[in-house]
Design goal:
Layout: H1 12-21, E1 24-31, E2 43-45, E3 59-63, E4 69-74, E5 77-80, E6 86-88, E7 93-97, E8 102-106, H2 116-119, E9 127-133, E10 138-143, H3 148-154, E11 160-162, E12 165-168, H4 178-191, E13 195-196, E14 198-201, E15 204-207, H5 213-221, E16 233-234, E17 237-243, E18 255-259, H6 273-280, E19 282-283, E20 291-295, E21 303-304, E22 309-314, E23 316-317, E24 322-323, E25 329-333, E26 339-344, H7 345-352, E27 358-368, E28 372-376, E29 379-384, H8 388-396, E30 400-402, E31 405-409, E32 417-419, E33 424-427, E34 437-442
Parallel strand pairs: 5-10, 17-27
Antiparallel strand pairs: 1-9, 1-12, 2-8, 3-4, 4-7, 5-6, 7-8, 9-10, 11-12, 13-28, 14-15, 16-17, 18-33, 19-20, 20-31, 21-22, 22-25, 23-24, 25-26, 27-28, 27-29, 29-34, 30-33, 31-32
Amino acid sequence: MKQPTEFSKITLEQLRALMANAGVKRILMKELAPNDNAKNQPYLSGSLEVLNIIPAGEVYVDETKDGNRIMKAALPLDWLQLNGQTVPAPHAKLILYPQYPEVRFSGFLRGSKGPNEILTTRRPGRLLFFGLTDDRRIVAWATWGDSALAENVKSLGQLESEGVFKRIPISPAVPMDSRELLLGELRRIHLLDWIESKRRTRAGVVPYNARNGIGYTLEAELGISNNGIAGPDFEGWEVKANQVKKFSVIPPSKKNTLLTPEPDGGEYTHLDLGTFIRRYGYADRRNVADRLNFGGDFRVGRRHPLTGLTTHLTGYDSVKCVVTDVDGKLILASDAGTEVASWSFKKLFSRWNDKHAKAVYVPGETRLATTAEYRYGSAVYLCEGTNFNLFLSALAKGLVIFDPGMKLEFASTERPHSKKRSQFRILWRDIPKVYHEVSRKELVEDR
């Protein structure tokens, strides 16, 4: 489809306005190489990190014409139009090659009103823009390398990198460096000292007194709404508040939850929870009457003494640190070899995609006055660059553990009460194993 002349004349100011009206909160841009076109599938990453930068759908395994099995994920992508409307690209998807690793972009023009003239050529300098919304959609745009928009982008100077993308502030008022913006806000929050517990909803900020208020209060101060969407973020940073007894005792020694996926294979998937816990659980270790538990640390290569289950990881080469089989899985197996519970790579991959490539861990203290109050430390930890292979590597080494919290109360009665909680956790000291870079930043100078 030949684009109208005005398509090449749109300015950065106009693009920002159109994107903002479409609900975009962050803009990422990639300069396309000659081979980055509809025929050859644009290259998005030489690692799986891109899955933690842009949103994607559930990962699935597909077989190519030559019999190879690869991973794919639908991309929730719409093409922005000059009139401000957006039209879906129903076949847009990511092609994932975890064994290389490599990620490519496919199907984005099929059945859509996208910029065909731009994305079917090998002309160098073309720019592809991804606008990211709070509800995990992508609003896309493309332009020529000699357009007014491209010249406006060049005039911005050095841009912050996010994987293969460059970050473009959604407005001129937003600082160019998201890290400095984040640290500035955390410095402001630290200086507020004690803050009453609260949470931010779409209707505004409301009081909040549940035990998990430390995270919601920090997010509310950062302008992040608690809307149930995975991985609330601040300019691309996942924000994690960690409760500590004293700021002097950091980093905290407790475990951090990374993922909470339910098994998608094994006996667990066709047994009710009560039956499962009766079969593989054990009596409460603190002598709580009539209660059975299924919990503890499940590490790859080890047998759990209370449940009799051994954890195995298949389809991953822990020496080369690469996926060897996209149908691999994490398995809890009985001594007889029964697959009691398992998580496929596609399930784990989809959940890992909810994590951000950048995260900040903020220590916080709690006190109970009339209402719960929190204050946040003067030192924070910035964690940057993650991907699924790092997660699998830490899993294989026993650093990431399956740490369930399942229980069956009043087990002998006619109305037992069961609770499920599947979670993968890691000790704070091992957090650097799932990120490329971890640094401690002081928010205020010594006084």
